[in-house]
Fold EAL domain-containing protein.
Amino acid sequence: ASASGGNRFQLYEPAMSSQAERHSAIERRLRLALTTDGLSLAYQPKVNLRSGLIEGVEALLRWEDDELGRVTPDEIIPVAEATGLIVPLGQWVLRTACQCFGTDAPFERPLSVAVNVSALQLDDRQFTRKLTRILEETGFPAERLELELTESALVHNPEHARVTLTELRALGLTFAIDDFGTGYSNLAQLRRLPIQTLKIDRTFMMGVTTSAQEAAIVKAVMALAHALELHVVAEGIETPAQLDFIRELGGHHYQGYLCSKPLDRSGLLAFMKALPGT
Ligand code: C2E
Ligand code: CA
Ligand code: CA
Ligand code: CA
């Protein structure tokens, strides 16, 4: 037992310390990136399932660091949440997205912009005030800003979430529940919130044309959304068969590689210019 214990220790310990090192390297470089304009956003089109028109985008964090190379949001966000950097980072994301699609933006139609918001940002008692300031400073219309919140963000501190969402709703913002179906949905609790949209997680959409079980889950979510008069956005649509499936069920919008990967601002402009009929 002692030999195997020794082995396990040797195998385990370097992994642990390199993970901790990676975490602190990300923290250090992220602090710097926040003050030196080292971050960027990519925008993924959100397509109307009936008209085929791009009506909005989701803003997604991108980071190409000189030392660390490309770091994905799945790595950045947990470090940002653990260190409190999520608050300034989240502010930066909101401000940048609003600036990019403001009134003087060169897009042919006004696009709605969806921004991912972490539970810890909602916990910030100054969130409404800071967001109001960003809208004022960028001139971005609140009606076109949608916040994407996960179920866990909403049930984390439900009474505070309800107060904050109600304040923001009064300003004109809308809200989507992200990754719907993957969390511990307390439907009674969610019902008390001013939510307009459910986003069906990509992990469900992946299987809809091959697995009867996944298809049944998505059908049940669609039925629920219709009963509650909520919009449905399907994430991660990669094939025409997935698109047909969700369109026939009466979904409203989709995102996915079938239309486009997330693009930088100029890539999005070029992509939209090249589309027929727009
Ligand atoms: P999410 O909000 O569920 O975003 C969808 C993710 O799926 C994005 O990954 C997007 O690039 C990817 N995706 C979109 N369409 C497809 C597809 O057809 N196939 C496949 N395989 N993937 C697709 P990304 O950009 O790596 O972001 C991962 C997660 O990180 C996001 O998941 C979101 O939870 C979080 N995140 C990203 N940006 C932010 C941010 O600014 N703030 C916060 N709090 N979280 C963010
Ligand atoms: Ca999202
Ligand atoms: Ca998702
Ligand atoms: Ca997510």
